[in-house]
Prior knowledge:
By secondary structure, the protein is an alpha+beta fold. It is built from five helices and 13 strands. The longest helix is centred in the first third of the chain and has 25 residues, at 2-26. The model is unreliable at 11-26 and 196-215 (pLDDT under 50).
Amino acid sequence: xxxxxxxxxxxxxxxxxxxxxxxxxxxxxxxxxxxxxxxxxxxxxxxxxxxxxxxxxxxxxxxxxxxxxxxxxxxxxxxxxxxxxxxxxxxxxxxxxxxxxxxxxxxxxxxxxxxxxxxxxxxxxxxxxxxxxxxxxxxxxxxxxxxxxxxxxxxxxxxxxxxxxxxxxxxxxxxxxxxxxxxxxxxxxxxxxxxxxxxxxxxxxxxxxxxxxxx
Length: 215
């Protein structure tokens, strides 16, 4: 009887390892550019967390402060004049003349001031959050880490496309987001993005033309 139990236990362990292997093979590969080149997230030799654009949209993540609640060791504090990003407890003081120790990059462009973290997340492909010093690849202001935002690319081949989303927020706030994409001569895609936020009596509108797609 004891021998039969041992055989059954061995079969159960073998089945468990086999199931784990099959499940691992079914996991979707995540590609990141945290090392300035495309690599699988599993092969990237840095501590990095990635949130896809689909996750950002489904979870209604409209800003970096909300995003930080999904990222380990990444936090924000705000005052009237600045936003302070911290990684693993390392950040800067409240003086707005100081540059961040957690660098913010959007499509490779460095945004140096803390208040630029107040820019909303809209029409992005993914956000990569790197923990630890990143000066070798990203340069200055990355002593504690870096946030790399990759915006969504316009699709070559589509004549016209777009999207609009309307959401309600607390205290009577409204959020309207929309984008349209058109094909220019010689298959050069261009994207025009617009975001309007209304909170109480404050109305702000952001319009941006995708820099890297429009030349």
